[in-house]
Amino acid sequence: MRQTERNWTSVKNFILLGLSDHPNQQTGFFVLFLAMFLTAVTGNTMIVAVIIRDRHLHTPMYFFLGNLSFVDICFTCAIAPKMLQNMLAEVRTIPFHGCMAQLYAFLCTACTEMYLLAVMAFDRYVAICYPLRYTSVMSRKLCISLVCASWLFVSFLSLLHISMVSTFTFCGSNLIRHFFCDLPPLLKLVCSDTTSYEWLVFTEGSLVTISPFVFTIASYVSIISTILKIPSKKGRLRAFSTCSSHLTVVILFFGTIFFTYLRPFSISALYQERVITVVYTIVIPMLNPFIYSLRNNDVKGALRNLFCRKISV
Where are the alpha helices (DSSP H) in the chain? Predict the structure, then answer.
């Protein structure tokens, strides 16, 4: 055992394989993902800006939407810049501490988005099922408390995982078969047995991800039940349109997360995970501003007013 430990080398840098194994595809991927990254950051920044500037959007629903857009900006900025840099670099390295920082940012923003989606579902539940009590229930204090609680809980949980992963001994190959520092490919480089930790991640991660999803689904069961009781067809369509965008994002985000992580890492297909991970780290943050704005007259009107004001100036 001691002889084996002497052969272990302390890894100071990791090499990220990237999205593709073929070097001739890197330029095309760089242009594509640079455009997607800029679209995601620009679109979400516009949503945040218009919600802050337009007083008509200072409501709980848009308060949560602004926070979701801010999380999407942090989410994609934690992954995309390093991925784009490595697409043009000859040596795709990332320092050990940089890897841990990226993993922390990824875990923190991904889990925060889950809880914000659940909070937004609760907001829609109160608005549709208890419209007369909406103002009193969804007070400013409660809204701020829900957002802060989501950030604090997820930050502590992510810090706990990083403190555990950073104590592992990495040896042999330092090649991460992914385009960022994610848990499944990272744990494959650990020298010691990580079975107990993997099952901890699987069980605890299942609770962390399934609990907001179950809460969201339960909220929508009540919402749909209430909508079906509305006598007029126009009223039903109007009520459903207020939550259809959010429901679309919930299905896309939770679907890809569950497919990637809610299974033991030993049976994960790493190439398949790389493709699916692109969806929820870059594609969904890019689509969210369009999903929430195209079917929302308030946001579209606020955006038009913002552009018209800039043009007149």
Answer: 2-7, 26-53, 60-88, 96-129, 134-137, 140-165, 183-187, 195-228, 233-261, 270-278, 284-294, 297-312
Please give the structure tokens belonging to residue 245: 């965008």
Task: Write the Ramachandran bin of 18: left for phi over 0, alpha for psi from -120 to 50, otherwise beta.
Answer: left
- What does the block give as tokens for 285? 């943050």
User: Is the dihedral angle over the CA atoms 116, 66, 261, 222 positive or is it negative?
Assistant: positive
Greatest alpha-carbon span in the chain: 77
Tell me the CA distances in angstroms from 10 to 13, 161, 189, one per residue in order: 9, 20, 11
d(CA 250, CA 245): 9
Q: Which residues contact 45 (CB under 8 A, 6 or more apart)?
A: 69, 73
Main-chain phi, psi angles of 311, to 5 degrees: -65, -40
**112 residue type, one letter:** T
pLDDT tens by residue, 222-268: 999 998 888 888 888 887 877 888 888 898 898 888 877 765 554 44
pLDDT (tens digit per residue) in 108-119 = 999 999 999 999
Residue partners of 78: CB distance under 8 A and separation at least 6 = 102, 105, 106, 109
Q: What is the pLDDT of residue 74?
A: 94
3-state secondary structure 165-224: HCCCCECCCCEECCCCCCHHHHHCCECCCCHHHHHHHHHHHHHHHHHHHHHHHHHHHHHH
